[in-house]
Amino acid sequence: DAGITQSPRHKVTETGTPVTLRCHQTENHRYMYWYRQDPGHGLRLIHYSYGVKDTDKGEVSDGYSVSRSKTEDFLLTLESATSSQTSVYFCAISGTSGNYEQYFGPGTRLTVT
Amino acid sequence: EDKVVQSPLSLVVHEGDTVTLNCSYEVTNFRSLLWYKQEKKAPTFLFMLTSSGIEKKSGRLSSILDKKELFSILNITATQTGDSAVYLCAVEGPGGGADGLTFGKGTHLIIQP
């Protein structure tokens, strides 16, 4: 398994509170991604990073921000959580060798009440 | 907008049957198509297909891509209960994996003993 961890694995928070999810990799891969997975929608890209301090928006980026200050860490922040952001969040990484399979972390289940 | 459509959305078969899962796509400047298996956790990588007509095979699973007709199939022969999962199809656009994958909604496969 690729060396990807996510924290926390489960979180319950209240509407309006800020939340930060962490993705940590030990593979030294250049590319990192945040997806959310919801019933009926499948996996959708929130933000991605192509290097330290280099990030860009995905399909469903509204209400989310990201930061990458080190190769190994990619943070996803919900500035003011809403119930529509209740979801399972997956981090993924892909390598620098030219093949772009993405490998996924174990996921974080976030519930916003 | 890139689009990936999987069919059927769900499928129930008996152990030992052969199944074929379908994935059609519309994507600007296609680079590759990927298959993942998802049990009650993170998606795990199965295949990446870049060239039309070349079958990728791993044990009882195989997949092929038709770039002219814009679809791929995933075959599983001699199915086992451990094959029960959601199978996800995803495509890479012009940025390669560098700007994320577009996923279909998945096929939920149930193998009955």
Q: What series of H and E elements makes up the topology of chain A? A: EEEEEEEEEEE
- N-C termini distance of chain B: 41 Å
Main structural class of chain B: mainly beta
User: What order do the SSEs of chain B take from the amino end to the carboxyl end, as H and E?
Assistant: EEEEEEEEEEE
Task: Determine the structural class of chain A based on helices, strands and strand pairing.
Answer: mainly beta
Secondary structure tally, helices of chain A: 0
Q: How much helix is in the residues of chain B?
A: under 10%
Ranges of chain A where pLDDT stays below 50 over 5 or more residues in a row are none
Q: How large, in whole angstroms, is the Cα Rg of chain B?
A: 14 Å
Total beta strands of chain A:
11
Biggest sheet descriptor of chain A:
7 strands, mixed
Molecular structure report:
- The complex is a heterodimer of chains A (113) and B (113).
- With 113 residues, chain A is mainly β.
- Chain A contains no helices and 11 strands.
- In chain A, a hairpin with a 2-residue loop joins strand 7 and strand 8 (73-78).
- Chain A is globular.
- Chain A starts with a strand and ends with a strand.
- Chain B contains no helices and 11 strands.
- The termini of chain B are far apart.
- The radius of gyration of chain B is 14 Å and the shape is globular.
- In chain B, strands 2, 4, 5, 9, 10 and 11 form a 6-stranded mixed beta sheet that branches. In chain B, strands 1-3-8-7-6 form a 5-stranded antiparallel beta sheet, with no helix packed on it.
- The mean pLDDT of chain B is 91.
- In chain B, 0% of the residues lie in helices and 61% in strands.
- With 113 residues, chain B is an all-beta fold.
